[in-house]
Amino acid sequence: MTMDSLDIAGSAQQEFVTDSNEALEFKLVRCKEDLERDETTFKPEMSHQIFGETETIFGYKELSVKLYYSAARLSPYLGMSYTSKVDPKKAEGVQPDEVLKPVAEKLPQTFFTNLDDFVKALDKDASFRPYGELLHTFGPSLSSDGDGASPRTFEVYLATAETPGLREHHEALQTFLLWYIDAASFIDIDDDRWRFFVCFERYKTAEGETRYAVAGYTTVYEYYAYPCHVRPRISQMLVLPPFQKLGIGAEMLDIVYRHYKNNEKVVDITVEDPSENFTRLRDFVDCRNCAKLSCFQPLKLAQGFSPTMADDAKKELKMSSKQVRRVYEILRLRATNLSDKEEYRNFRLDVKKRLNMPYQKEDSDMKKLLKVLRPEELAVSVTGREQRIETLDRMYNQLEEEYKHVLERLAVL
């Protein structure tokens, strides 16, 4: 729905404007009974990548857009329902928005539009087995109902573009990105440098059959690093909503780390444009891992950041130097007695000293320019002292809040 359409339609037609996030209804269907269960329904976090920045759909009352996937094979069903449709004659000629077409354009070529056919196809999930190499099996931090009963089992598999079954499955799997990762884009699966870490839940049906359901996935691109090395970059990570808050994201990230950490050709592992949530997840996993290294113990942390920390974390965990420094600050904050004014002050100064480094470079560059140019010839802006202090305080306070979120999660280990 465009703003122009809203203006033309007028306030009298507002009843035909629907929030596209509310209209969409997702399910990962294991059996036909799931179609009637409200608890199997989940919503998108965003829909602007399909329905525009306003995230609205014009032209329908009580609109419901159903996008269902079989839990294992991810065979899609797409349908919609509504109670009434706008009459263009009463909306100054404005036609109802296309609803199914923009969604269908992102789906695999073959998808169901008949719900009965979709239900019949669910039986094919019984023969589905994960593709690729099994890397790790684990149980999440919570049970299936959160009370300690019915433990669950998850498996993570590694696949490439050449792995049988990956292409078809990934074509459907990547469509979830549009609803949960901003500025998401589909990847070129023909590039053989892509690696896919896919997580499945292995479960038993009431009849005792072993089946699988997709829980999430991570993509990694193995960049070349001179002269004969590799620098893996984590591109996308998505845990599907029914499996969130179980600790699966942390497990998947740790599995990626473990896969690469003993590879001598790997320089370090980086991340492509991490979201706020992923940054927090990465900080948590990296802090948990670094806390096991001797150089990150409280007494060493109190002595300040050292090259040994960077060297050990890079050697043992394939962490980048920038991330090692961030982890050091988080762990040092945890080891700092905030009630001790001097100890807390030393920590703040340590962080601000790092934050001030760009300004120090600015001062150094200015001194070099002044040696060859007169003050009136300079056309550069120099940050004033008061402005600099204010900026450093703001940056520090923001960082400390971020760090405390990570420490809250570390505290429950």
Proportion of beta-strand residues: 15-25%
Task: Round the mean pLDDT to the nearest integer and report it.
Answer: 91
Order of strands across the main sheet: 9-10-11-12-13-14
Instruction: Give the CA-based shape.
Output: globular
The major beta sheet can be summarized as: 6 strands, mixed
Q: Treating each run of at least 4 consecutive H or I residues as one helix, how many helices?
A: 15
Structural class: alpha+beta
Amino-to-carboxy terminus distance: 47 Å
> What would you report as the Rg, rounded to the nearest angstrom?
26 Å
Low-confidence stretches: 1-6, 143-148
Helix fraction by DSSP (H/I, runs of at least 4): 25-40%
The topology string of helices and strands comes to: HEHEEHEEEEEHHEEHHEEEHEHHHHHHH
Q: How many β strands by DSSP?
A: 14
Features:
20% strand, alpha+beta, 413 residues, single chain, four-stranded mixed sheet
Topology:
Elements: H1 3-9, E1 17-19, H2 20-23, E2 24-29, E3 41-42, H3 48-51, E4 56-58, E5 60-61, E6 64-70, E7 76-81, E8 84-85, H4 100-104, H5 115-121, E9 133-138, E10 153-159, H6 166-173, H7 177-180, E11 194-204, E12 210-225, E13 229-239, H8 248-261, E14 270-271, H9 276-290, H10 298-302, H11 307-317, H12 321-335, H13 341-355, H14 357-372, H15 385-410
Parallel strand pairs: 2-6, 13-14
Antiparallel strand pairs: 1-4, 2-3, 5-8, 6-7, 9-10, 10-11, 11-12, 12-13
Helix pairs in contact: 8-9, 9-12, 9-15, 11-12, 12-15, 13-15
